[in-house]
What we know:
This protein is mainly α. 45% of the residues lie in helices and 8% in strands. It has a domain at 1-43. The protein is built from two helices and two strands. Strands 1-2 form a two-stranded parallel sheet. It starts with a strand and ends in an 8-residue tail after the last helix.
Amino acid sequence: MLVWFGLNWSLELYQQFNGRLHRQGQTRPVRVVHMVASGCMDERVIDALNKKGETQNALLFALKPKQKCLQ
């Protein structure tokens, strides 16, 4: 289990750190918990990370080669 008490603005560092928990040979479930204070900067950081992740996923999807349908 990983508990984030403070987040980093960098999506790359956030994903890399979380990804290290999901390593090869890991047999137990992995849980990532965010301690986010309501009405504070923590909310802005988690929102920014989520938006960065959505943008990154959309970009990767757009760059994926399209498969042609067989007719």
